[in-house]
Amino acid sequence: MSQCHLLLGTNIGDKKHNLLQARELIIARIGKIIKPSAIYQTSAWGKEDQDDFLNQVLAIETEQSPEVLLGKCLDIEKDLGRVRFEHWGERLIDIDILYYGDQVITSQRLTVPHPEIQNRRFTLVPLVEIAPEYKHPKMNQTNKDLLGLCTDPLEVVKIE
């Protein structure tokens, strides 16, 4: 079993329901959720002229390899109705692999740790909630330290 951290994000439709459906499919298809963060609201990042996002980080245990995990995350997105229109655009659901244990993976399809963790407050705030002392395997800094260094100005508000 490997422990992984996933980031869920949504900004279309019934956002809380989208997160719930994604969590249910993750349990059914990928593995056990060990620890979920609270749900957080933040303004859109990268492409700002869209509705606010709800985000949540999940610590999970899985037997899936990183490549299979990626495929299952993409399948869940598709099955929930995600259509990719534009980079950083609106999305019904987005599932990003933040960490896969302490592995560093660089392939054509997958980069782990996620290359933007340290730049995104909407990722770091829920990550610090559930794994503050986890060390980024490439940067050798804890999530808590990365949040302290993050220059992203977007406010991240806990909603539940």
UniProtKB/TrEMBL annotation:
PROSITE patterns: HPPK. Pathway: Cofactor biosynthesis; tetrahydrofolate biosynthesis; 2-amino-4-hydroxy-6-hydroxymethyl-7,8-dihydropteridine diphosphate from 7,8-dihydroneopterin triphosphate: step 4/4. Transmembrane segments: none annotated. Signal peptide: none annotated. InterPro entries: Hppk, Hppk_sf. Pfam families: HPPK. Its EC number is 2.7.6.3. Gene3D superfamilies: 7,8-Dihydro-6-hydroxymethylpterin-pyrophosphokinase HPPK. One of its GO terms (biological process) is tetrahydrofolate biosynthetic process. GO terms for molecular function: 2-amino-4-hydroxy-6-hydroxymethyldihydropteridine diphosphokinase activity; ATP binding; kinase activity. Keywords: ATP-binding, Folate biosynthesis, Kinase, Nucleotide-binding, Transferase. The keyword Nucleotide-binding applies. Residues 87-98 form the 7,8-dihydro-6-hydroxymethylpterin-pyrophosphokinase domain. It is an enzyme of class 2 (transferase). Catalyzes the transfer of pyrophosphate from adenosine triphosphate (ATP) to 6-hydroxymethyl-7,8-dihydropterin, an enzymatic step in folate biosynthesis pathway. Belongs to the HPPK family. This is 2-amino-4-hydroxy-6-hydroxymethyldihydropteridine pyrophosphokinase. It comes from Reichenbachiella faecimaris. The lineage of its organism: Bacteria, Pseudomonadati, Bacteroidota, Cytophagia, Cytophagales.
